Amino acid sequence: MKTTIEVPDELYRRAKATAALHGRKLKDLVEEGLRLVLEAPRKTRGQRSLADLMKRARGVVDSGIDDLATNPKHLAGFGRDAGDR
Predict the structure, then answer these.
(1) How many CA atoms within 13 Å lie on the side-chain side of 49?
(2) Cα–Cα distance between 14 and 1 in angstroms, integer?
(3) What is the pLDDT of residues 34-78, one digit of tens each?
(4) Residues 6+ apart with CB under 8 A from 19
(5) pTM of the model
(6) Which of 8, 55, 5, 59 is nearest to 34 (CA)?
(7) Is 14 helix (H, G, I), strand (E, B) or coil?
(8) What does the DSSP 8-state code read for residue 66?
(9) Nearest to 3 by CA among 29, 30, 25
(10) Cβ count within 10 A of residue 41
């Protein structure tokens, strides 16, 4: 099927150059882009927070220390005392 689309001049030039660099036609590049967008999984409603994304990774690294914040030597160089060195 043929269709007409309007794109900004700069985007057209970049797409045309990219297609040429890869030895492809512009129409093939556009088709690939449409397929990537249409076949990508839909985003869930709203953005997920970093905490949600990292939920499964929590506790993966074991430092061997129960709680770093309870031992002052692990906090050396942090906070207002950092500039006193």
Answers:
(1) 3
(2) 24
(3) 998 888 776 655 677 777 777 777 666 666 666 666 777 777 777
(4) 25, 26, 28, 29
(5) 0.47
(6) 5
(7) helix
(8) S
(9) 30
(10) 5
Look-up: residue for tokens 């006193």?
A: 84
Closest CA to 2 of 29, 24, 23, 31: 31
Residue type, 65: I
Residue, of 33 and 80, whose pLDDT is higher: 33
Please state, in angstroms and rounded to a whole number, the distance separating the CA atoms of residues 56 and 79.
30
Those residues whose C-beta lies under 8 Å from the C-beta of residue 26, and which sit 6 or more positions away, are 15, 16, 19
DSSP line for 33-65: HHHHHHHSPPPPSSPPPHHHHTGGGTT----S-
Tokens of 78: 């942090």
Tokens read off for 30: 């556009």
